[in-house]
């Protein structure tokens, strides 16, 4: 799982604009997004882990670490602001400490037990800076220095702050403010001459001098191809040069600082290996501590041609070397059947003992050079194992056992476990006893366990601190340059106090702010940065007139209101990148008011009448009894059948949809037979009486009365609820 850590320069010099119209910080943000898009084309990018570190003071410089997701990474990237110093050394140290946080817990470094290339955590640090002078709180530095003291436990076990699977690359932005014609360079992008270049080369990386946007895109494509799984090894020539073949050979191949590729297993996706690279010291059981190791092992190679040795079923590790002057020289010799042995100084039992643990050999097709890692002092072990299987048939005699015991004593103790596993695979599991000793003293083992526990605690502490914002200054501090008495001891203190509160005109001539001890000008807007008031040289030249105008405006308005840190125009001046940030605006909004009666359930708004309720469970009032009760009990049987059918027909219709009818006719009979009753009322629908008496009411009027009464009762009920 590759780790991609972006170290972004957030110094104030990153605010300078290029010929494209954007600032260096904007270009850095865009470069990160372009890199992620290019990297996403590779199917292996699914396991990538992205981290973000800036030049802010620790612990606020780590914006996205081990636990932050992709959304947090992108949010922190977009919200970066350039307002600090160019503290490159402290930022690099913080980045390396962040990467080394879990190495002691996981035991990936394997201190004192050999270096396993297949135990790795490949990391690529991409620094984007403008390459200006290194500044800190005490001045300007000419050279790049990383702090030696680190809060990370176990940092004293390695001389350098980085590890052999961590490489540093730098994109140094050198884009001019005005477009220069014909500034493009054909071919590869040159390295930069800033202080970070040497640091990149030490870790196995390089720097890029970026002058145009096209060069930046070219560099990003190159960086995507350098995200590889491997470790950096320092190869050095030992002994005389080989005989010259053909013409002269280049000298840089004598010492190369290059990467060896550690390919993951295609089935599991995890690198698999068998043999470690020896340590540069012999582990002593009486030693109370471990000597510090260098980040990159120094592997020496002898230029004496030897035949490669290998036997059946004996496992070996094969690593491809990164193209370098060394690989170019070996390939030019065109000797694919010969090899050069490799060894590590002081790895044997004696101080001058150095036995080979592998060899360098060109591939058969002469396309690459491979490093073969074998058991320690394999020229002695392989003939013994060959005799064991072919001559003795797994039944060794005393002479063979004595030779094998002598070999085991000359081998570092940490090779016993991988050798026992290899012999088990070959079919000889009982050659080495089970009571093996790792070669470390009890004090060293206890110290490593203690460091692992401390590293776990430090890891939890650092993970919690990631994402914290630095405390914002709520005011502008004014230094006290006078030791005189404060204004409270003056005789006209009351008059000055009344002038400040606005009761009387303020005498600005008598006002001396230096007499206040710890005087601080308050700022209404917390987002306003007060650095501009501290030092006049921090104000950009184009903002000098505007800054003086604001200060004069604030000074002259002290008798009316509190001092304001910005004018009305700046309230509506928002950068384009923050226009869509609605979440921060919503956080500043006041909380909504509470309900008048929170216990009362909310009434659902219905269409039409706002007082309308569900009719389920409605009680029957007196109007219903007046309609249903007396009519059903006292209904006369003398009514006509036609009147009953008309009653049913009229009740099926809504009272609001009927046609207006004539006023009720008060008479003593229902169907009168006089000439006036038959002639004058022929075309009119006659009302149906409900009671035979003095008054007769039509059904339309009765339903209207009922509807009005129900509405009045509902209105009164609603008013009663509101008053409660």
TrEMBL record:
- Pfam families in alphabetical order: Beta-barrel_INTS6, VWA_2
Record domain VWFA: where: 3-227
InterPro entries recorded: Beta-barrel_INTS6 (IPR057413), Integrator_subunit6 (IPR051113), VWF_A (IPR002035), vWFA_dom_sf (IPR036465)
- Chain segments carrying region Disordered: 657-680
Q: Which GO terms describe its biological process?
A: snRNA 3'-end processing
Which parts form a coiled-coil structure per UniProt?
A: none
Q: List the protein's name.
A: Integrator complex subunit 6 like
């Amino acid at each position: 799982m590759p780790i991609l850590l972006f170290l972004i320069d957030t110094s104030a010099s990153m605010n300078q604009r290029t010929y494209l119209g954007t600032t260096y910080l904007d270009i850095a943000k865009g470069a990160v997004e372009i890199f992620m898009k290019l990297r996403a084309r590779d199917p292996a990018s699914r396991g990538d882990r992205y981290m973000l570190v800036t030049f802010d003071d620790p612990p606020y410089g780590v914006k996205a670490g081990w636990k932050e997701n992709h959304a947090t990474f992108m949010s922190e990237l977009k919200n970066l602001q350039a307002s600090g110093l160019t503290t490159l050394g402290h930022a690099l140290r913080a980045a390396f400490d962040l990467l080394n946080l879990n190495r002691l817990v996981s035991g990936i470094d394997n201190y004192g037990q050999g270096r396993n290339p297949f135990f790795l955590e490949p990391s690529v640090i991409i620094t984007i800076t403008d390459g200006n002078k290194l500044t800190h709180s005490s001045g300007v530095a000419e050279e790049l220095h990383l702090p030696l003291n680190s809060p990370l436990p176990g940092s004293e076990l390695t001389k350098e702050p980085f590890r052999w699977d961590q490489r540093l690359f730098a994109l140094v932005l050198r884009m001019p403010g005005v477009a220069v014609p014909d500034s493009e360079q054909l071919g590869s992008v040159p390295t930069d001459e800033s202080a970070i270049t040497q640091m990149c080369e030490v870790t196995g990386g390089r720097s890029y001098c970026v002058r145009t946007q096209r060069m930046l895109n070219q560099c990003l494509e190159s960086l995507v191809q350098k995200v590889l799984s491997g470790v950096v090894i320092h190869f050095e020539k030992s002994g005389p040069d080989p005989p010259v073949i053909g013409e002269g050979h280049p000298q840089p191949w004598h010492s190369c600082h290059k990467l060896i590729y550690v390919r993951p297993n295609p089935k599991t996706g995890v690198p698999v290996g068998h043999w470690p690279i020896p340590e540069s010291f012999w582990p002593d059981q009486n030693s109370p501590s471990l000597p510090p190791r260098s980040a990159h092992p120094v592997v020496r190679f002898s230029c004496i041609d030897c035949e490669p040795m290998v036997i059946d079923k004996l496992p070996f590790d094969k690593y491809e070397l990164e193209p370098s002057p060394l690989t170019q020289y070996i390939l030019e010799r065109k000797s694919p059947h010969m090899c050069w042995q490799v060894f590590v100084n002081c790895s044997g039992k004696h101080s001058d003992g150095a036995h080979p643990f592998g060899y360098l050999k060109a591939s058969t097709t002469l396309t690459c050079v491979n490093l073969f890692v074998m058991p320690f002092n394999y020229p002695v072990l392989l003939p013994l194992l060959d005799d064991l299987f072919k001559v003795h048939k797994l039944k060794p005699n005393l002479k063979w056992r004595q030779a094998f015991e002598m070999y085991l004593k000359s081998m570092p103790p940490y090779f016993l476990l991988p050798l026992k596993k290899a012999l088990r695979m070959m079919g000889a599991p009982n050659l080495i006893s089970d009571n093996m000793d790792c070669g470390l003293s009890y004090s060293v083992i206890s110290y490593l366990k203690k460091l692992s526990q401390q590293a776990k605690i430090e890891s939890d502490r650092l993970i919690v601190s990631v994402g914290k914002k630095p405390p914002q200054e709520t005011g502008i501090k004014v230094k006290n340059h006078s030791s005189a008495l404060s204004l409270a001891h003056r005789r006209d203190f009351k008059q000055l106090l009344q002038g400040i509160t606005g009761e009387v005109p303020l005498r600005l001539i008598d006002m001396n702010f230096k007499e206040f001890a710890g005087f601080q000008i308050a700022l209404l807007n917390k987002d306003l940065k007060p650095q501009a008031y501290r030092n006049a040289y921090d104000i950009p030249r184009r903002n000098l007139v505007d800054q003086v105008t604001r200060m004069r405006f604030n000074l002259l308005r002290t008798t009316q209101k509190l001092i304001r840190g910005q004018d009305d125009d700046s309230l509506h001046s928002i950068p384009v990148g923050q226009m869509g940030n609605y979440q921060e605006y919503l956080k500043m909004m006041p909380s909504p008011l509470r309900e008048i009666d929170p216990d009362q359930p909310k009434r659902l708004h219905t269409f039409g009448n706002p007082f309308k309720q569900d009719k389920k469970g409605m009680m029957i009032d007196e109007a219903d009894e007046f309609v249903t009760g007396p009519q059903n009990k006292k209904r006369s049987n003398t009514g006509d059948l036609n009147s009953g059918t008309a009653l049913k027909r009229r009740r099926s219709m809504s009272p609001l949809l009927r046609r207006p009818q004539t006023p009720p006719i008060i008479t003593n009979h229902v169907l009168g037979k006089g000439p006036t009753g038959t002639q004058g009322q022929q075309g009119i629908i006659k009302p149906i009486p409900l009671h035979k008496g003095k008054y007769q009411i039509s059904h339309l009027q009765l339903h209207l009365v009922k509807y009005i009464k129900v509405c009045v009762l509902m209105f009164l009920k609603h008013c009663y609820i509101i008053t409660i």
